[in-house]
Amino acid sequence: MAVDSNLSSPLGPPACEKDAKALRFIEEMTRNADTVQENLLAEILARNSNTEYLRRFNLGGATDRDTFKTKIPIITYEDLQPEIQRIADGDRSPILSAHPISEFLTSSGTSAGERKLMPTIREELDRRQLLYSLLMPVMNLYVPGLDKGKGLYFLFVKSETKTPGGLPARPVLTSYYKSEHFRSRPYDPYNVYTSPNEAILCPDSFQSMYTQMLCGLLDRLSVVRVGAVFASGLLRAIRFLQLHWSRFAHDIEFGCLDFEITDRSIRQCMSGIIKPDPALAEFIRQECKSEYWERIITRIWPNTKYIDVIVTGAMAQYIPTLEYYSGGLPMACTMYASSECYFGLNLNPMSKPSEVSYTIMPNMAYFEFIPLGGTKAVELVDVKIGKEYELVVTTYAGLCRYRVGDILRVTGFHNSAPQFHFVRRKNVLLSIDSDKTDESELQKAVENASRLLHEECGSRVAEYTSYADTSTIPGHYVLYWELLVRDGARQPSHETLTRCCLEMEESLNSVYRQSRVADNSVGPLEIRVVRNGTFEELMDYAISRGASINQYKVPRCVNFTPIVELLDSRVVSAHFSPALPHWTPERRRR
Ligand code: AMP
User: Fold this and answer.
1) In 10 A of CB 165, how many CB atoms?
2) Which of 266, 350, 461, 476 has the least CB density, counted as fewest CB within 10 Å?
3) How far is the C-alpha of 227 from the C-alpha of 223, rounded, in Å?
4) What pLDDT score does 1 carry?
5) What is the pTM of this model?
6) Pocket of ligand 1 contains residue 251 by CB under 6 Å
C-alpha cells in the first residue's frame, strides 16, 4: 500500500517510508547531477592531493574540473600497471589513494591473460551498499506485494587469493557477500531470500548451488522473484535442476540432505529447514521427469512475478532461452556496475530488455564520456541523446580518468542525469559467462594450436572464425577451421584435433579457464573443421551483401544466423576439448 501522499515521489508513490527516502535521494542526485559531480571531483582531488599519482601532474592544489582535465591524462589499466603492482607487492605509501587500499577487486576484464586488479578502499563498500539500497524502492513502484514473499536468488562466492603484499584479491561480489553489510543485513520484508547465508558463502560451487536450489524448492510457494546476477547464471541453475531433480526429490521426501553436502555450516543450518514432505517430492518428480521444460520456472514457482537477471550486453544472447523457461515473465535488469565502481540503476526495471537504460548516479564517482571517434571527454550532463560514448571514471579509490572499456548510448535523461543503453564492451569477441576473449587472445590461441597441428601432421590452419554457441548449457566456444593439408602431409587425426582444442583452451585467459574449471560456466571448446573453399564462400556471401572486395576481412567471430548456417552446412568433422585446462586461483606474475 502506498504511504502518505506528501511522501510521494515524481517516480511514483513509494511503498513505504524507507522507499520514500530512497526515491527522494534519487531525485536529489539526478536533479543536481552537475553540482554533485563538481563537488565529488573536488572532494576526491582534495583528499588525494598528496598521493604520488596526483602530485606527478602538478595540480598545485587545484580541485576544479578544468585544471583536472588539462593536466591529468586519460588512461587505461596498462598505464597504471606499475603502480598497481607496487601496491599489490606491499607498498603502503599513498600511491593512488590517501585512504589505504583495503583489497583488490579482480575484474573479469583481463590484462596479459590475468584478471585486472582494481584497487578499492573500505568506504567504497558503503557506496555500493547505497546503490543496492535504491533497487527495491524502484522495483516496488512497479511490482506490488514483494514484501509478501521471498526472492530465490542464486548467489555465489568465488575463490580468493592474497597478493604478495597480503591484500585480498577477489571478485567484487565475493567481497560484498562476505562483508558485514551483506551478512548482517537488517531484516527487510522486501528483501528476504530463500538462500541461507551459509549456502551463499560456501566456497564449493556444487554444495552452494545444491543447497540454494533445495531451499528454493522447499519454499516454492513463497517465491515471488527468481534471479541471479547474470542470465547465464540462472540458466546454469535450471540446468542443475535438470541434472539433479531426483536427488532433490529424495531429500525432500525423507527430510535428509544429500551425502555430497559436507559443509558443516550448511548441514547445521539445513537441519532446521528440511522436513519430510512426500507430496512436494512427488510434485517435483512429476514436473521434472518429462522432456518438456517449457515454463519450468512458473510451474515450480507459480507466484514468480519477474526474473531478476542482467540480460543486457553480452547476456542478450540468453533472452530466448530464458523466455522459454520462464513463460515470458518480465526480465528486470536492475543495475549497471563493475569492479572499478558501481555506476547506476534502471529506473524502469520492467522495460523490455532491448529498451533497458541505466541512469548513472552522479554520487558514485566522477564520470566523463569520450564520444565514439572523438578524443575530448565531456561531462555527465553534457552528453547528447542518440550519441555513443566510452565511459571514463575517476573514483575515490584512486582511479583517475580511467577508461572502463564500455560503450554506451544516451537514450534520455532523468532530470539532469543521462540514461544509457549498454551497447557493448570494447574489443570483446567471444563471451559465454563472465569470460571475455578479444581478437588477439583468440589469434594467439589459434596460432598455438596450429603449431601443434603442424608438428603432429604437417597441416596448418588456413582460415578460422568463431562462434559463441549458447544452445547448450553451459555454452561453449566453437572454432571453425579450414585446414591447409599440403601434399605429403597427413590428414590430422581426431586425437590431434581434440588436443588442439585443449591447447586453445590452455592459451585463453584466466577468466576463461576459471569458468571452465571452477565455475563450470563454460563448456569444452569445439573445433569444427569445414571443407576447403568454405571461407571463400563466406567472402562471396559478404560481397553479395555489399562488402567491398578490396577491404574484405574474414570476421573472427560470427553470429549472423545465415552465416553460421552456411558454416555448419560445410562441417566435415567436429572435435571437443577432452580435458580441463589448467587453472589455479594464483596469479601468474608478469
Ligand atoms: P567486472 O569488472 O568483472 O565486474 O565487469 C564489469 C563489466 O560487466 C562492466 O564494465 C560491463 O562491461 C559489464 N556489465 C556490468 N553490468 C552490466 C549490465 N547491467 N549490462 C551489461 N553489461 C554489464
Assistant:
1) 15
2) 350
3) 11
4) 46
5) 0.95
6) no
Q: Tell me what pLDDT residue 489 has.
A: 73
Q: What digits encode the pLDDT tens for the residues 136-185? A: 999 999 999 999 999 999 999 999 999 999 999 999 999 999 999 999 99
User: One-letter amino acid identity for 579?
Assistant: A
Residue written as grid cell 559465454: 432
Mutation test of ligand 1: which of 104, 106, 230, 310 has the most ligand atoms closer than 8 Å to its C-beta?
A: 310
- Report how far residue 186's alpha carbon sits from residue 197's, in angstroms, rounded to the nearest whole number: 13
CA 148, 154, 155, 157 torsion: positive or negative? positive
Whole-angstrom CA distances from 27 to 30, 88, 140 are 5, 39, 16
C-beta pairs of 157-163 under 8 Å, 24+ apart in sequence = 157/200, 157/201, 157/202, 157/203, 157/208, 158/203, 158/514, 158/518, 158/519, 159/203, 159/518, 159/585, 160/585, 161/585, 161/586, 161/587, 163/87, 163/88, 163/89, 163/90, 163/104, 163/117
- C-alpha 460: how far from chain center: 35
Is the CB of 339 inside a 6 Å radius of any atom of ligand 1? yes
CB-CB contact of 349 with 360 (8 Å): no
Assigned C-alpha cell, 116:
585486472
Residue 188: count of CB within 10 angstroms of its CB: 12
**Segments of the chain scoring below 70 in pLDDT:** 1-7, 589-590
C-alpha cell, 59:
595540480
From CA 246, how far away is CA 250, in angstroms rounded? 6
312 touches ligand 1 (CB under 6 Å): yes
For residue range 309-322, list pLDDT tens digits in order: 999 999 999 999 99
- Torsions phi, psi for 366 (to 5 deg): -95, 125
Please report, as a single letter, which amino acid is at residue 527: I
Nearest CA to ligand 1 atom 20: 312
By DSSP bridging, strand 331-332 and strand 101-111 are unpaired
**Looking at the DSSP assignment, which residues form a beta bridge with residue 425?**
406
107 CA to middle of ligand 1, Å?
A: 10
Q: Report pLDDT for 260.
A: 97
